[in-house]
Amino acid sequence: MRHSQLRAFDAVAREGSFSRAAQLLKLTPPAVTIQVRSLEETYGLTLFHRSGGQALLTEDGQQLFNKTRQFFLEEEKIQEHLSASSALERGHLKIAADGPHVALPLIAAFRERYPGVTLSVSLGNAESVRQDILAQRGDVGITANCAGDDRLILDNLSLQSMVALVPAEHSLAKSKRIGLAELMAEQLILRERGSNTRRVLDLAVKQQGLAYEEMLELGSREAVREAVAVGLGIGFLFEHEVWGDNRTHALLIDELRDSNRDMVICLKSQIKRRSVEAFVSLARETAGAS
Q1: pTM of the model
Q2: Mean pLDDT of residues grouped by 10 in the chain (290 residues)?
Q3: pLDDT digits (tens, 9 = 90+) for 191-202
Q4: Interstrand relation of 48-51 and 54-57 (parallel, antiparallel or unpaired)
């Protein structure tokens, strides 16, 4: 068993892909494959199910990953203690975010304060961010309305209200606010299931005893904005996600004021890492200032 083999295995387990692990380790995919295969052959184990470019952990692989994560976290702490990263002059932080609007200002502030720390950012929906943090594919997450978990630290950043986005020529474009019931008979454009926007909206619709009549489901906020702009229907976004576009008009929804709680999340086991601790501290400063 070699350190390089464990490092390659751990990277593939975190990334769920040999090619992405190779990018993380600055190696070629064949080099990573050789390291993992050697580890499997030495101990007679199958650590991954390989399918369609994905690497899914087997039961043996998951048990090993639980141990390698702890091992490499301790190694990172030792490196931080012995090197300039203890003063955050260097290091690496992986950030998972469910959208750029809340994440990017915080990322920019962190980069200005700690220019020596390399940042990598992955974008997904709220559920994928939560799973990335729990699976240790990301160090810190910026997401919304995250469900509580004994393994997680959750810090609130800000509140947002949901808005209905209508085409500029729509009869409702003259209004500033609207109730959910008034929207249900319209052609609606919804985010995909698993997104925070869809989850918050579905809950409010259920609580009001309403039901969608006509709907189109799209997989990103950008697609929703464009679909509304070309007249396909009425979409739902949070207020910070609405950019200036004279093709559309945003209405506050009465039942969904302050319905979105933006958060920074991380594993409790990671909070003592200096880069993670610094990011969470900055988020708390930002929340306090706002």
Answers
A1: 0.66
A2: 91 93 92 95 94 91 93 80 65 90 93 92 91 93 92 93 96 94 94 90 96 91 94 94 88 95 94 91 85
A3: 998 889 999 999
A4: antiparallel
Range(s) of the domain holding residue 226: 162-257
pLDDT tens sequence across 240-269: 888 778 999 999 999 999 999 999 999 999
Number of domains in the chain: 3
Beta bridge partners of 214: 187
CA distances from 211 to 43, 191, 204, 283 (A): 55, 16, 10, 37
Same domain for 76 and 217, yes or no, is no
Cα separation, 290 vs 285, whole angstroms: 9
Final residue belonging to a domain, choices 48, 82, 116: 82
290-to-13, 182, 286 alpha-carbon distances in Å: 38, 33, 6
Whether the Cβ atoms of residue 238 and residue 125 lie closer than 8 Å to each other: no
User: How many whole angstroms separate alpha carbon 98 and alpha carbon 143?
Assistant: 5
Regarding beta strands 162-167 and 152-160, do their DSSP bridges make them parallel or antiparallel, or are they unpaired? Answer: unpaired
Same domain, 136 and 68: no
242, HSE (Cβ side, Cα atoms, 13 Å): 22
137 and 271 inside one domain:
yes
